[in-house]
Amino acid sequence: MTILERHMQLLDQMATERYAGNRSACLRAAIEDHARSLEGENEFEVEQLVVAVQDLEERVSDVQRSLQENLEEKPTGEDLKQTPQHQNKDSERQHQIYELISSQGSISLNQIASHVDAPLVELESTLQTLCDRGLVNKTSSSGRLEYEIDVSGVSNNE
pTM of the full predicted structure? Predict the structure, then answer.
């Protein structure tokens, strides 16, 4: 029997890791395992793996469906316009900031503050609400924080 040097190194590594350095025990186990594979005895394990992969595929599909449903329910700038004015003073500010960001593309907090009459703390809170609702993203441009409309999950038809 001839064993190539790379096989010998692999045998030594497996024997050390799994068989307390006993190469003979490692070779016997490998031969028996290969014989079972040739006789089809490992088909049950393969079937189990196939079932597990199919289960994972179903789970991934469920998660994708759920994400798609959430994206379809994502509010838009139009939704902000339709919020009743008596509901919340902040909703007006949300709409105003959303429209400002829409018209500018990308804008900093200081630029927003120059257009919207509100304390910086309230503007930051409103911007965070818009980010949490998935309407606005924070970005970093030239080392400064800016805000832009979140267009992920929105088709060109919207």
Answer: 0.42
